[in-house]
Design a protein that fits this description.
Length: 506
Amino acid sequence: MPAPMSAGGQARPGFHAGFPARRAGPEVLPLGPALAHALAWQAVGLGLLVLHVLLVRETGPAAAVLALGGLALLYALLPLAGLVVFWQMALYQNAAVAFFSDGMSPGAYQVLLGTGFLAAGLLGGLATLRILFARPAAAPAARRIALLACAAIGVSTAYAAYGATLSSPASAAVYLRAATGMLLMLLVGLDLGRLWGFRAVAIGYLVSLLAGLCYSALEVADPAWFYEAAGNLPFMNLKYGPAEQDWPFHTARDLIATRTSVLFNVTGSETSLMSFRFGGPNIHPVSYAYVIAMGGIAALGLRWRWSIVPVALLLAAIGVKGAMLAFVSTLGFWALWQWTGWPRLMLAGMAAFVVAYATAVILVGLGSGDFHVIGLIGGFEGFLRNPLGHGIGVGGNLSDAARAGIDMAELQNSGAEFGLESAIGVLLYQLGLGLLAHFVAFGALLAAARPRNGWRHARPRDTDAIFIGAAMTMVNGLFQEEAYTTYALGAALLFAGTLVANRPER
């Protein structure tokens, strides 16, 4: 394959990638070769993932070092290939663990769960080194955003060390992943954008979704048979058993019942419309809905307009409000800009929508006892009590202390004293004023999307949908904890970072 080209058209020594690549600019990679390479690396990644799960299950935690070291080496030599392999770990690790979960020890399960975050940390660390020191040099905006992201990660790490002394190292680790995973993906995007463009990164992501759609089709077609065959029952008992011994899954019917709810799972809804919230290979309906939504937004950036209908149908079927909102609002505001040609009207519309949406959800949620609203208010009140923050791992419904004594029914009556079920609520409670570091990095990224000549005469491009999607997913963090995971905001920031680092002038 050809090496990446310099601005003068000469091949750069020292780079040899498994994808076709070009220098910054409005590139158009041949679709066939890009798909073929992404499919090939997906097959490799899935095979390595299965081997990794089996080695950890049979030989112990030390085997995880092999997978992490191999992924780091691959990313160092072939970044795009390394990213595709990483997506297999992120998207399919739960499915692989479930399939081999019968007889798996809780210790091996916990190690496998932590591998994904450690892998993201390794890729983010390597990406930072290349952004700061490698040639060709990163664009000034990319370097600036990378430094801000690293500062936010540093602040989070310090708060996690503090929180570990007040709660436990396990709680601090869980919430450190939630606080930094999306920033690590941003760093990876800024690194890849030095030499490659959005098209290659987006195609790699979309190809990575293919096996998951097949997995989901089998799950929806016959969930009882599928949950027994795919190992979802022992997986769910490994996941929830240690914390909730009184809630085991005995049969597939137990799991189907937890996945069946009123349409879009609206708290207090009296509708008779029901939905089956399939979990996909993530084995988590909310996370997987965001995977689908981010795929739809990436497809918009690729001008794959035909994808709008199937993505919308999938999101309606899975019934996750936040993911549907992120996709539909992105499509709507991008279309408004396209049709009117007035970017300032689009920005004003976004601002008005966010205010109206947040106000309505809070008012309705207070009346219905919605946990997301309760958690947001709990986080804000906790911030007022201690603006410096309580420490990462303290509070939050996934912390050890909260899981041991939390009574969700009581929270609906009396409210929460800490953040939960809201990414911003939890981060505000745990980081306090330290959360400003995150929003400074987010703001710098979105500001980099501003056209060189200002908004007045700017015409929309297809890839502008990515920045709109990132902004709307950030807003979703008010009412959904999963909005700030690697699968949601992490994917959006990966794409946006690639565009910032590899974006031509308007």
